[in-house]
Amino acid sequence: MNDWEQALSDTVDLVPPSGIRKFFDVAASMDDVITLGIGEPDFVTPWHIRESCVYGLEKGYTSYSTNKGMLPLRQEIANLYKKNYAIDYNPAEEIIVTVGVSEAVDLALRAILNPGDEVLIPEPCYVSYKACVILAGGKPVPVPTKIENEFRVTAADLEKFVTPATKALLIGYPNNPTGTILTEEELNGLAKFAEKYNLIVLSDEIYGDLTYGGLEHICFSTLPGMKDRTILFNGFSKAYAMTGWRLGYAMANPVFIEAMNKIHQYTMLCAPVTAQVAGIEALRNGEKNMHKMINEYDQRRHLIYEGFCRMGLKTFEPKGAFYIFPSIKETGMTSEEFVENLLEREHVAVIPGNAFGECGEGFIRCSYATSVDKIAGALNRIENFLKNI
Ligand code: PLP
């Protein structure tokens, strides 16, 4: 018998399995589970977007598109950024449509990293970042942040980890898993840091539309001098409730976009055309529905934040995305123990904070992209759990 484990690439061995999936597998085998685990909208994609895809199929949109994506879609993306952020991106040269932000992040890292190049990643962060850096041959350098500072990263934090091998800074605000967003002053601090060390900034702004309490998202490329050194990511999964469509994009200097397109054309060829047709409709006419969903998330955000405050779990009000990240340190359990026990005793699924980096230990991530009833039910069960331990 061949030992196929031995045959696997060393790089794959370096990447740990996602800390999220494990708990979903257990939760899926249980009855009556309320899950606050999943990081995706509970809404179905609005009908007008689905309908445009159906019409697209009727009209025969079933072939490949150009590698960088249908030009009308890239034009709509450029229009969106012009309208929302007053920034110009040339749809022909500075935008590439990808299979979700996931592919865009992977392409960007593979396009810029040589073996051993270091990428600074403020943590806690989205689970894929570290793995993607490793898979691209680079070295992820986690930069821990603290609840005392609402998990904000500062240039002073980054200074401690910069070396001659540092090539890039990978950030994601509004943040998954903490819901933190940065102020203009804080972002300018990061911009000056990137300039000082001549770093490429990879900015994942997939939750850019999901900010609350009147706070406006600041697009990193709009900061002085940053457009040229930033590879910006956004997509349709969260704001338009289109996770399954697999559609995202990257915007950057044409040199980066060309390099990313080189990899994309040999590996993915193009993003699904059915999704691209729907993406055009989403950008042309999707704003009203998007705002309805954001208002819903906002109500749920208040409910869950107040719930955790009532229980006495230390947390802070999340200002973006659809996650809250309370501390469970006072229970004396580790994140994984807490999550396992909560699932077993109260049938509530949440994600251990350490899945998002070591400094997430002692926290749990709860998603409020689920109904008010389910959130209220989960909060009651968590309160009960805390009373009985
Ligand atoms: N970036 C962040 C911060 C995310 O939270 C997610 C999904 O949860 C993704 C990217 C993946 O996005 P997509 O569905 O566009 O691949």
Overall description:
This protein has 389 residues and is α/β, with parallel strands linked by helices. The chain folds into two domains: 4-45 and 288-387, Aspartate Aminotransferase, domain 1 (Alpha-Beta Complex), CATH 3.90.1150.10; 48-286, Type I PLP-dependent aspartate aminotransferase-like (Major domain) (Aspartate Aminotransferase, domain 2, 3-Layer(aba) Sandwich), CATH 3.40.640. 42% of the residues lie in helices and 13% in strands. The protein contains 14 helices and twelve strands. A seven-stranded mixed beta sheet has the order 2-8-7-6-5-3-4, sandwiched between helices. Strand 3 (118-123), helix 7 and strand 4 form a beta-alpha-beta unit. It starts with a helix and ends with a helix. The mean pLDDT is 96. Pyridoxal-5'-phosphate is lined by residues 39, 100-102, 126, 172, 176, 204, 206, 235, 237, 243, 248.
Shape: globular
Please estimate the helix content: 40-55%
pLDDT averaged residue by residue: 96
The CATH class name of the largest domain reads Alpha Beta
Can you write the helix and strand succession as a string?
HHHEHHEHEHEHEHEEEHHHEHEEEH
The CATH superfamily title of the largest domain: Type I PLP-dependent aspartate aminotransferase-like (Major domain)
User: How much beta, percentage-wise?
Assistant: 5-15%
Total separate domains: 2
Can you summarize the main beta sheet?
A: 7 strands, mixed
Strand count: 12
